[in-house]
Amino acid sequence: MIEIGKKNSEIFPPPPQLPFQSSTATVTDKRFLIRREYEIGRDKWNKLQASALAHGFSSLSVLLSAFGEVLGRWSSGSEMTVILLNDSSGHATPEDLFNRMASQPAIPVVFKPVRDENRIEICRRTELQLADSVNRCPATVSSIFPNIAKDSGQDDRQVVVVFSGVLPAFHDSAGTDENMVNNASGSVCDEHHPQEMRMPQVCLHCHVSEHDEEIGITWDVLAELFPLNLPDAMFEVYICLLNWSSEKAWAKQAPDFLPELQRAVREKVNATFVPVKEKLIHQEFFIHAQENPEKEALLWDENGIDRMMTYGELADKALRLAALLSEKGVQQGEAVAVTLPRGPNQVIAVLAVLAAGAVYVPIGVNQPAGRRDRIYRIGGISRLVTDKTEFAVLSTEEKLTVIMTDEADKVSPLPRPVSVNTDALAYVIFTSGSTGEPKGVQIPHRAAYNTILDINTRFSVSASDRVLAVSALDFDLSVYDLFGLLSAGGGIVLLNESTGREALVWLELIRRMNVTVWNSVPALLDMLMIAAGEYGLLPSLRLALVSGDWVGLDLHDRLIKKSQDCRFIALGGATEASIWSNYFEVTSVDPSWSSIPYGAPLTNQCFRVVDRFGRDCPDMVTGELWIGGMGVARGYLGNSELTSKSFINTGENRWYRTGDLARYWSDGILEFLGRADQQVKLRGYRIELGEIEAVLRQYAGISQAVAVISSGTGTQHLVAAVVAGCAPVQVHTVSSVPSNSDSFRNSSREIQSKIAEALIAEILNLAELQNDTGKNLHPGRQLRITDENQSLLQMWLRWLGGRNVITDYDGVLHGGPRIEEVLQYAKTLQRSAVNSNGIIADDPLISSVARRLFQRLDDYRGILSGEISSVVLLDDDILSPESLSSRDSGTIAGIELIAEKIKCISKAAGKPVETALIGGRSGIIAAKLLDMLDPEDISFTLLDSALSMVETAKIHLSSLPHSVNCKRLPEYGVPDQLRYSFDLVLAVNALHRYHDPYQGVAIASLLVRCGGKILALEHCEIMPLAAVTSAVLDRGFADFDHDRRQAYSPMLPAQQWANLFKKAGFNKTSFMPVGDSFTEFIEADCPATRPELDLDCILKFTADHLPPHMLPEKIEILPWLPLSANGKVDRAAVTAVFAFRAEERGGEKPHAGMEQEVAEMWQKLLSSGAIGRKQGFFEIGGDSLLATRFLAGVKEKFGVELSLRQMFELPALFQVASVLESKLMEMKQTMESMEEGEI
């Protein structure tokens, strides 16, 4: 279909978005470098004219509509506008054409491809609309495309396509004015002055002319814009379509004119089908178990001790559990849920379900209860294999049959696995659905086995191989980890739940257990390479399989440096197509690549790249990737409607529509271009976010990039985030001074430990253990401790056990040798707390802390039970971490050292030192530092992530004579005005507060300028009193990285901080103890030659490689990219980084009434301007402390209570207002009913 005749005031679709390889700014010769010519002979031209006349339209419509069809095929079927010119002078030079576009009338022709139209329908619509268009006021190119910017000196123009000709025979239609085209030569309706406008560049000019009853067709092409051979392929198809139209009946649809050479190449690369002996995915494992029962199957670390399970042992345990499943009524083909933590029991359970003839459905232990419940419903699941009854809870009265793994120990094993057909389902993996409803992908045995056999054969995986199982069971890469290696007779090295994302643990296990195969998403291999960068080589690795996301161009070379003989394989596919469907072995990286190619299909699998009408896209044209062959899933469990939309039958073939974007290269290799949902439409242009990301990653100094659309109501912004790559440090000097503080530290540690253990004993009511009767401590029951505080409880119990206060914690506690001593001391401290007197310790700080702890015993119990938020401790003038830090003797001495450094630097430079303090909290530490300095010594900026702290700091520091700024530092980003801006970056007991220790260092490195320094104070170990202060706020450090979480301490020794500074590109680090204290002073120097990312340079680079409509409006340089649970980039978190004006983000204003009242309270709390009704409290800078204050204000103002949980679940302003209105209505109704009762 072609739509023509829009008024000049309307906005036309953009020109054809053809697959260019460069922008006009990089074209060195603006002349047409390619000319292609063809003549339609007299006989064919007469037939074309006769057919046109018979159907009542002009020959122009035939030529023009065919041109539009070809452009549509090479523009992914998108809507577009072509310029039609009446060229009365024959062939036009580029200069003539340029001048003519600037001054003469032009007819905009809008092509909007429609599915399944025949030539009559297409040409008739062209005819009618063309007639309508030329009868309107003529236009110039500048009025058709008004978004062409005025000349700014940049030679980067929008590109257009022009169709022109001199055709007397055009006017042969009975229904068309013979002066149809010539009528367009009237006055031009254009508000713009052509001489002021930047005219577009013509990339393709199709000129047609008639002479001697023949038609000459000429294409002039700006060659440098296009990939090699692409214009020739387009021209070939145009001629084929015209020739077909001269010979065939137009009532039929024209055939698919994919260029023959391209069709032949694709048929060759997709010719992968060979006979395969079909098997069950667990079949070969049980054969190995019989033939070689002593072979190692599973290996894992258990508290530093290597554990192992043989094939024979694993098969026996699996068959015992399979027998138990059969006893519990499990039927062949039944879906059985498996919810177990990582470890050998997880593998046993999966094999048992399969051996029982059933289908395993992995559901992660960390899945929210509501999502587990939906999976049970969708899957019709009635049986669950687990080791924790909590996972069996449903939100309705329905019950699951729960099968506990340890119940199988006394059951006789099945003699052999139950026999099922290879067409039977092997597993169902639930993935996220766009509607929020999980999708259960059904994979038969034969489909998964085909992939497993191919990979094992292609890459010679054998009994001598071992894989590190880094992927979770409910992520489909785990299918190969388990059955790829067990089918080959190899070994699986298992992780546990706490080590699943810990690169240093992976590194150790790879070396210790001789892992040979790596299989993960690229981000996890990247993490491994970062960890290995500090500690050396990975000689055992021989095969690295990466899939599921973009593969960084540098990943191959980094891996080869660590493991010289390792093969690097990039794989692709979908859960719906049995793990993988294609591969590409990387041996070197071509400089022209913007990403690692997707590759070619695996055995018995095939691909198509199709446009939105299901037609095969020509080479270099982006389309949706379809996967066919043996690996295609049966469909989605319990969702026939979604199955019919996602799985397509064409003849004998069945295809899965991936929703991924790709394109074919001329050699048949596929290039992956991201998700279709990453294809966005912005201001009329269809934009591939993946293409923008690929260009950004080519910029020197950028290691990672992600492009997103940040949307407000009615407003969309194209933005991108990048992460700087750290230049390798050639020489990294570390100097240290040994500590002489052992005596002080031992003494202070002991008195603090006695206070902390006494307090914990009181909180947990351990007096019941005094008679050693034992006490059942089932988490969350007798002690009423919430799930989120379980890590804190475990921390306390382990620590008390180490100090002999309790013993034998295995669900039952007993009093230890010191229980009575501790309880007696607790009574002494309680008396001191009540009377506020008595000397508890020589250090007055410790004495005051001890008294306050016991004064707040009830609050501590309320925090553990979830009745009180732990943020109340932040308001305590003694117990808050900031107060404790500011009164700590080591910290005070360290601040004095920092002040002396600043004085020296200022004196040498003769100007104030530009200084930033990260994690500055409410300004107490800052005030101490500034009191030691003259105003001319320092220009000071306090930074903190919590807006409440920043606002308090402004008040706290406002009376000082120094130059002071207080700013909120976003979670991920460093604002432009702060980046590379400071001579000194200070971190006083702040670096350890980040959940990953590198994060604080990375942020500091983006703040400090070249040649600057980072000065940090950190405790060398966690002080015992922190176990009952900061550990409570951080829930036992449950969200920290593995090593610190396992140690129940956020602190790192100074040497580890030095390693992190080296990783961030610092070339010199020194550290020394600060007097008699736990404090260490750390100084890191930033090289004067460190490369710094410049946003203007990055934008200029992108402008050289992308058309104007694809240039990001804003680019943020982030210290790191946030990742999802599966190790992929968390795009939602990246989007949140970009803070546009509140009006744009919030959109609609709050409604009068309760919404307006809530808005006013938020504005006062957050010191914010206008707030939109759909904005969330935490989105606009709120935090838990501010939310607690808001809730207190609500209770005071309205007399009703909201919980902090409700604030997190319903954070938008209109939602909070709605809940308040409901509560007020309930209160009113209650009062009325009480009054009626009194009457």
Write a compact overview of the structure shown.
With 1239 residues, the protein is of the alpha/beta class.
**Rg over alpha carbons:** 35 Å
Instruction: Summarize model confidence as the mean pLDDT.
Output: 83
**CATH homology superfamily name of the domain at 2-16 and 33-249:** Nonribosomal peptide synthetase, condensation domain
CATH class of the domain at 2-16 and 33-249: Alpha Beta
| CATH fold name of the domain at 2-16 and 33-249 | Chloramphenicol Acetyltransferase
> Which structural class do the helices and strands define?
alpha/beta
**Major beta sheet, specifics?**
8 strands, mixed
How many strands appear in the DSSP assignment?
44
Terminal Cα span: 76 Å
Helix content: 25-40%
InterPro entries: AA_adenyl_dom, ACP-like_sf, AMP-bd_C_sf, AMP-binding_CS, AMP-dep_synth/lig_dom, ANL_N_sf, PP-bd_ACP, SAM-dependent_MTases_sf
Region (Disordered): 1-22
GO molecular function: ligase activity; phosphopantetheine binding
Organism: Pelosinus fermentans B4
Task: Write structural notes for this entry.
The chain is an alpha/beta fold. Among the domains are: 2-16 and 33-249, Nonribosomal peptide synthetase, condensation domain (Chloramphenicol Acetyltransferase), CATH 3.30.559.30; 683-727 and 1094-1137, GMP Synthetase, Chain A, domain 3 (2-Layer Sandwich); 742-875, no CATH class; 1146-1238, Non-ribosomal Peptide Synthetase Peptidyl Carrier Protein, Chain A, CATH 1.10.1200. Helix content is 36%, strand content 21%. Helix 1 (42-55) packs across helix 6 (230-247) and helix 2 crosses helix 4. Keywords: Ligase.
